[in-house]
Amino acid sequence: MAEKKSTTTFESIMRDLKEGRFSPVYVLMGEEAYYIDRIADYIADHALQPEERDFNQTILFGADTTGIQVADMAKGYPMMAERRVVIVKEAQAMKGLDALDKYFENPVKTTVLVICYKNGTIDRRKKIVSKAETSGIVFESKKVRDYDLPGFVESYLATKGATIERKAASMVAEHIGADLNRLTSELDKVLIAMPEGDRRLTPEIVERQIGVSKEFNAFELRNAIINRNIFQANQIVKYFDKNPKSGSLFAFLPLLFNYFQNLMIAQYSPQNKSEDAVAKLLELRAGWAARDYMTGLRNYTPLKTLQIISKIRDIDARSKGLDNPNTSTGDLMKELIFFILH
């Protein structure tokens, strides 16, 4: 059994697995399927030798089984192998999940039981969670925040022996969004097309391979707004209006809302306004990640930021048809950008 850690993270779990330390119980739950799938797939591929899997590995789906049946399977012993593996996918559809709490009290040490509970979490007040934490690993897979996506892109590519320019990482993240499985799939496709001797992704490569314009994209529009570059912002909005697939109001509003929401936090914080202090306050990856907020602190007053947040909410409601009989999304975007920059 892996040594109990005060904080269980994806990285700590994967580190233990790669060092051959398997826990008898894994309860993997949360809104982000990517990390749940990564952990479960690694266990399925590495906990047993290929020739051991026929008799010692069982993969089930929650809708086809019950908690009692899973517990019974987990109580079995391995055949000519060090351990056996039982993986339950889509466990949120399984009936009688609470029946596993008795098994978690005294799990079989030669079994690796993996419960994959997606699209939500199990109530942590339930005994099943506390008992799983005592006997094994409970991991909550949270959605990656939009402003952390470029950092995720950089980290993922680093594991593949590749690097990416900051602007290119932002272009990819904002074009594809927070679906990490799709995001990593697109990055893998780009890597396959790159020569072995050149593993650095540039905006030009992203533009060519993924189809994002390096000049007219959400990243550049956000950048133009932060720097109050009225001409550039208007050029990009006009481009979006003529090329809806390149950028839409629905994709851009959350990005813009997150920025000004964070800017407001920084503006009203009593802390000093250094890059490092703002990065720590907003839980950003590093000091340089706060530079856009440092620019925003110079270019927008706290009152204007509050007004912008209110306007974004208004535009969001109208884009969904509330009190808006006929204004197009393109015109709504133009109205919002004009309000922000004037």
Major sheet size, sense and barrel closure: 5 strands, parallel
Structure class: alpha/beta
Helix content: 40-55%
What is the count of β-strands? Answer: 7
Shape annotation? elongated
Number of helices: 17
Question: In sequence order, what are the helices and strands, one letter per element?
Answer: HEHHEHEHEHEHEHHEHHHHHHHH
Radius of gyration: 24 Å
Termini Cα gap: 61 Å
The stretches of 5 or more residues where confidence is low (pLDDT under 50) are 1-6
- Which strand order spans the largest sheet, edge to edge or round the barrel? 2-3-4-1-5
Let me know the average pLDDT.
Answer: 88
Question: What percent strand?
Answer: 5-15%
How is this structure best summarized?
The chain is α/β, with parallel strands linked by helices and 342 residues long. It has 17 helices and seven strands. The N and C termini lie far apart (61 Å).
